[in-house]
Design goal:
- With about 130 residues, the protein is mainly beta.
- The protein has a single domain (about 20-120), classed as Jelly Rolls (Sandwich).
- The chain is built from one helix and ten strands, in the order ββββαββββββ.
- It has one helix at about 40-45, and strands at about 1-5, 10-15, 25, 35-40, 50-55, 60-65, 70-85, 90, 100, 105-120.
- Strands 3, 4, 5, 6, 7, 8, 9 and 10 form an eight-stranded antiparallel sheet that branches. A two-stranded antiparallel ribbon has the order 1-2.
- The radius of gyration is 16 Å and the shape is globular.
Length: about 130
């Protein structure tokens, strides 16, 4: 359900969804991981995508880049190691926020505790 609210002559869109009702789907780079797209350009016409990523122990996201968008990761639970080109390896866990600039190689390895990551892509491409 989408609700629209007019504010000072502009239009602000409020997307109202129950996240638990959104289906998990296999991650495109690592099918044992799952993603849940909460808002997106395709579904909502927004210029940002917000996704939950579920990474079980032992599952990795291989090295990749996002050519056209920044990737902002905020772990909600769990623990893993992340590598970002130009920064190196570091622990990915709650309390850490990571911005990976567009066209920058990165990966998530060594998932030692089941992870859930709040992942934001800007600008949205899908």
């Amino acid at each position: 359900m989408m609700l629209y609210h007019h504010d000072n002559g502009g239009i602000a869109m409020i997307v109202n969804r129950i996240v638990e009702d959104i289906a998990w789907v296999p991650h495109k780079l690592s099918p044992e991981a799952k993603t849940k797209t909460m808002i997106s350009k395709k579904d909502d016409g927004l210029d940002v995508s917000c996704v939950l990523v579920d990474l079980p122990v032992g599952v990795e996201i291989p090295e990749h880049i996002h050519d056209q968008q920044d990737d902002i990761l905020y772990p909600l639970k769990g623990k893993a190691t992340m590598w970002v080109d130009g920064t190196g390896f570091f622990t990915l866990e709650p309390g850490v926020i990571v911005r990976v600039p567009k066209a920058t190689k990165h990966k998530i390895i060594d998932v030692v505790e089941d992870m859930v990551i709040y992942d934001v892509f800007s600008p949205a491409t899908v």
